[in-house]
């Protein structure tokens, strides 16, 4: 049977449990039509690049399928009817990934990077601001500001001379 990677996006106002129920429903459709679901990954709620049906975020779920084309077509048909599913994409692949998908590897790497930092730390690299002594003197608020005030004075002088 052909192998597929299927990703669907569910509305953000659904709970994680409701998304899991949708996944179970679609998994049942695949299995009833002679296919198998090799792996299910819930990627969580992520921001969308652009709004889809007034939604800015969505629940992302990946299904790795080993199923006939008719089963995949039926799942896609049901997802297009369902109001809770915003988008679905199915891609035929030569082989399925054995380990976690790229999205899951990325989130694991991000968690590891953040674990080393303390809250409030910033990545300053090699630059150290020190006491900022190299900035020079500060301009006093009452000191003249330059050409603009000179123009005003000359305009007043010309008006009084006439």
TrEMBL record:
InterPro entries: Ribosomal_bS6, Ribosomal_bS6_sf, Ribosomal_S6_plastid/chlpt, Transl_elong_EF1B/ribsomal_bS6. Residues 105-154 have a biased composition (Basic and acidic residues). Keywords: Ribonucleoprotein, Ribosomal protein, RNA-binding, rRNA-binding. It comes from the Bacteria. GO terms for cellular component: ribosome. Residues 96-162 are annotated as: Disordered. Pfam families: Ribosomal_S6. CDD domains: bS6. Gene3D superfamilies: 3.30.70.60. SUPFAM superfamilies: Ribosomal protein S6. Binds together with bS18 to 16S ribosomal RNA. Belongs to the bacterial ribosomal protein bS6 family. NCBIfam families: S6 (TIGR00166). This is Small ribosomal subunit protein bS6. It comes from Rhodoplanes tepidamans (Rhodoplanes cryptolactis).
């Amino acid at each position: 049977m052909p192998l597929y990677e299927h990703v669907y996006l569910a509305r953000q106002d659904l709970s994680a449990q409701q998304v899991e129920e949708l996944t179970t429903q679609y998994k049942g459709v695949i299995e009833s039509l002679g296919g198998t679901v090799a792996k299910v990954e819930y990627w969580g709620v992520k921001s969308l690049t652009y709004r889809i049906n007034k939604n800015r975020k969505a629940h992302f779920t990946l299904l790795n399928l080993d199923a006939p084309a008719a089963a995949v077509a039926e799942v896609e048909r049901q997802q297009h009817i369902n109001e809770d599913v915003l988008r679905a994409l199915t891609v035929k692949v030569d082989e399925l990934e054995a380990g976690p998908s790229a999205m899951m590897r990325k989130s694991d790497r991000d968690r590891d990077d953040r674990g080393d930092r303390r809250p409030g730390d910033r990545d300053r690299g090699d630059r150290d601001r020190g006491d900022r002594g190299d900035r020079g003197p500060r301009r006093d608020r009452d000191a003249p500001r330059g050409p603009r005030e000179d123009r005003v004075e000359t305009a007043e002088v010309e008006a009084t001379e006439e």
